[in-house]
Amino acid sequence: MSDTPRGKYGAVIQKARSEELQTSNEPENQKTGLPDEKEEDVNLSIKVSKRLRRHWVAEAKRRDTTLTAAIISALKEKFGEPVEE
Questions:
Q1: What is the span of the domain harbouring residue 61?
Q2: Is 67 in contact with 56 (CB distance < 8 Å)?
Q3: Which of 3, 8, 11, 28 has its CA 20 to 30 A from that of 22?
Q4: What gap in Å lies between CA 25 and CA 4, rounded to an integer?
C-alpha cells in the first residue's frame, strides 16, 4: 500500500489512520477483568424517526459525547438505579 493520498478523501483517510496508530487499540468499553465489573452490557433498541436520530447524533458529536451516554443519563435521571441487595 502506498503512503501517498489517493482520491478525493485520501489525505483525510491518511490523517485518520495516522491518528489511529497514536491511540490505544483497545475499545473504550473493553472489559478489564477487574472484580468491580459485575454486569454484562446488553443492547437496548428503540424506534425513532430518521430526522430525530440525525439531529441527536449531530448534537451528541457537537457536545463530544455519545447517544449511549445521553440515553443512560436520561434513564438514570428518570428512573434511578436499582438498589443493591
A1: 45-85
A2: yes
A3: 8
A4: 24
Is residue 16 in a domain?
no
Please tell me the pTM assigned to this model: 0.52
Assigned C-alpha cell, 1: 500500500
**pLDDT tens profile 20-72:** 555 555 555 555 555 556 788 899 999 999 999 999 999 999 999 999 999 99
- Determine contact, residues 29/41, Cβ cutoff 8 Å: yes
Separation of alpha carbons 72 and 54, rounded Å: 19
Q: For residues 20 and 2, what is the distance between their CA atoms, to the nearest angstrom?
A: 17
Assess if residue 40 is contained within a domain. Answer: no
Q: Which pLDDT score is estimated for 55? A: 96
What gap in Å lies between CA 73 and CA 52, rounded to an integer?
18
Domain assignment of residue 22, yes or no: no
